[in-house]
Structures are given as C-alpha cells and as structure tokens.
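Morning, I've got a small favour to ask if you have a moment. I owe you a coffee for this, so here goes:

…
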Amino acid sequence: MERQIVSLGAGTDTRSLRLFSQPLLRDVTYHEIDFPAICTKKLNIVKASPMLKTLLSEPALDESGSWRVSTEKGCQLWCHGRDLRELSEASSTAPFPGLRNDIPTVLISECCLCYLETDKAKAVIKWFKDRIPNIGIVIYEPTNPNDAFGKTMVDNLAARGIIMPTLWAYPTPEDQVVRLQEAGFETARYRTVDRIWNAWIPEDEKERVNGREGLDEVEEWQLLASHYIVAWAWQGLGFQSWADF
C-alpha cells in the first residue's frame, strides 16, 4: 500500500532518512515543511553525504523551490521551504509539489503547531484535512502548564523568549482531544509521555535507553514526561490499527 507522511516544522530531523534505510520499506512519500533556509541546509547536507548518495537519487529541484530525492524502492522525500502561517491566508493555494490526496496520510506536528497563534494552528490542520480524505494526525506538545511543575516549565521557556500560544488554548490532555474533535476528526485519543513509557516501551528498550542516557533522576523524568503529550486522531480509511491504541 502506498502511504504518505507530512512532517510540519521538520527542521534537521533525520526520521525520513532512517525510514528509507529500512530494507523492507516501499512506496512511502515523505514531505517535510519548514522555512526555506532550513530546507536549503538539509539539501546541502544530502548533497554532501557519501552515504546518502548510495541510498538516494540526485536531488531534483522544483520551480516552486521544493526539492525531491527518491529511492529504488519507490520512496520519495520532498522538502518544501514554506512558512506554515501562510496556510491561514484565504488567498493561499500553498502548492506542495508531490503532495497526494489519494493515499492514507499521516500529518506530524512535533512541537511545531504549538508555536503558532491558535487560529493559524487551526488553519494548518484544516488545510490538510480538507484536501486529504484519509488522514491521521499526531501532535506532540507540552501540557498541564497550570500545576507547580508546569508553571516552572513555562517560566523557564519564557525566560528564553519561547512562547507557546496553543499551550494556553489547550492546557490539559482532554483539551487536546476536544481540539481534534472540533477539527472534524472522527476519533481522537491521547497519552502523556510517561504513560507511553510505562505501557508501550519494552523493558529491554528501557534498559537500553537508561544505559545510554543515564536516567538517574527518575522522579524528575516522570514529572517532565507527564507534562508532554502525544495526541492523535484520524478519519477515513487506512488507520484501522490506530483503534488498538
């Protein structure tokens, strides 16, 4: 089955390249959207890496400023230099070359939409949802800003000039579910990161991570993890397995 992933504010994330290196992966189209300077930086990295040259085709530039590479197994990576806030403009057609509306698509926001004003974050979700009938969304953001730890977290971020408007618009995990339901998704769910860690991560993987990261401050980790959430929702076909989580 052909599938599509759209990563918002992808930055220098290498998830797409790690996916493409898996021998059994086929027919996945991966879109990354970030500011033009970030996309140009990633393009230069791809061009300069001998290892990536063995995995990917020569980058092809589109007239819109986007670029694309592909693998022998039918996978494609598109990188689009765009400001997501433009999607809230009524006149914006926001062409993303290679974006398909006929295959199941996962929209990922990993601490991206939280930096936008709430109305603009809503507009981004709506833009993709209105165009792709079979779509799921996964949002990773901070949560619970109003308890003692949350207030300290927010103060520390503010001291560095970091403001997250949607944190106040959706301050609890339950608010994130309502957010996705109001966006029109058929089903929406959430887990805080500490619950994911306890329920979904195998013990051998916990031991591996602990050995690498040295998680000696367990209580602090649990507090931090309880203040980050993964919320997900979906509509249409291609997401039957999501109902098991």
The radius of gyration is 19 Å. The longest strand covers residues 135-142.
